Amino acid sequence: MWAGRFNDMVPQDNMKNTSFQQKNRNYHQNDLAVKETKQPLSVIQSLQPGFTTNLIGVVLKKESPRCVISKKSPYKERYCLGFTIRDSLDWFMNATCWGEKPAVFYLSECFRIGEVIEIKNAMVMAATSFDEKFRPWTSSPLSLNISDAGNIIIYTGPDREQYLCYSHLPTKIYRDYYTLEDININGQSLHGEHVNLLVAVKKVNEVRNIKTKTGKQMKQCEVKLFDETCSTFTLMLWDDQLINNALSWLSNQTVLFINDVKVVFDEYKNYMVSTASSKTIITINPEIEEAQHLYVYAENHQDIEEIEDDVNNIPDPSSITDVYTVKEINDLLKVPSGQDIFGYSYSFISWFNVDATNKNYIQFYCPDCMFPMSAESPICLNSNCESTYDNMKSPLIKFYLTISFSDCTDTIRKCFVNNDLVENLLNISAAQFVQLSENRKTELKWKVLFERFKIYFKIQRQQESNCQPHRIKVLHCVPVDLQELVTYYQHKK
Fold it and tell me: What are the structural domains of the chain?
């Protein structure tokens, strides 16, 4: 179960002090040189412009270093590194570090999003119009400027955990967000707007190297998101810092509160997408009730199209000959890499919640384009679909649930099964099943529960470079003949 602790994702070898002083040994003494100070620590709430300060806080956002050409000295390059820091429930602010290229790039490697840092000898300044337009919104009207006399170290004090907790609290009102269904319904009317989203991670695609029209090399990472109203929504990441952070996100296990993400209508793909901008702050596994509900939903979610695609691409069950106990299957799931595995197990179904009162085991789809629909509002939200409100057909109804299966050695929990498999087990279609009384649904459930089956499965292994867990999917269930079962156990002995 998700504990919502970001520091679990931070490698221990990064928990060390790093400062401008360390890197400046190889550069000019005036390049962000460190000067010792006995100035006491301040808090963001009490800061006043025009003073220097020492401050401790957790990093909410960090941008990649960039070059700034001075108008006064157009041939002199200066580099800056922007980040956002928080030291309490209500107070957070932007900061900028200035210096020459080697020093700023070195500093960029010294701390990451989600780490607690201590800033020394930073100049407090009033936020500018640039901050308001291109930097994240903050509760403080001030900003920090860290230059030649500045110093930043990783903070390891006894109250470090308290600061880490602030990284799991959204910086905007946590109920002020759009559902993905809202984005799709409003469509082009939201084009170019910055909105807040509460979403779960579906998939983090591989990082791509992109060459822009101007010849600049950039990285791009496409992240697929979802919530309870929409099965797929695209988030584009272009900043190296956000991309590195996203590589630790887990499918169906990471929940995000995204502040000020830019939504645009992609004319080429003809649907809405989102792009993280310089104003965007992403809170990982936020400590709010709505996020916990979404986490529970996400943990049990998988696209029905993905399930059925896998089933359509499996070998004939008669060609699957390897038999496993449930414990052996669980052991295979722990092996870090290898090929996909097909097999079967003589097991009984120990969890089959097909009569749940929340009706999450049923999914509605547009019959024309197979886009997911809401049971309460059966209107297709796919902008590419030819269906309209006037000619809308009855939605296609499919089973969407997980099962658990067990034997005397162990239990496999929450395996996704496709619609055809469930209909075969119950001997009734999903559309017919939803019309039954609750008592009749329970009767059909108990005709399957704890009955012995020959359960065919597939272990889908992830790439070794991918931090996603392996998946197991039930492909086929066949009632077991008693004589076959006796023969198997006699042979096993």
Answer: 44-167 (2.40.50.140), 180-300 (2.40.50.140), 319-361+400-492 (2.40.50.140)
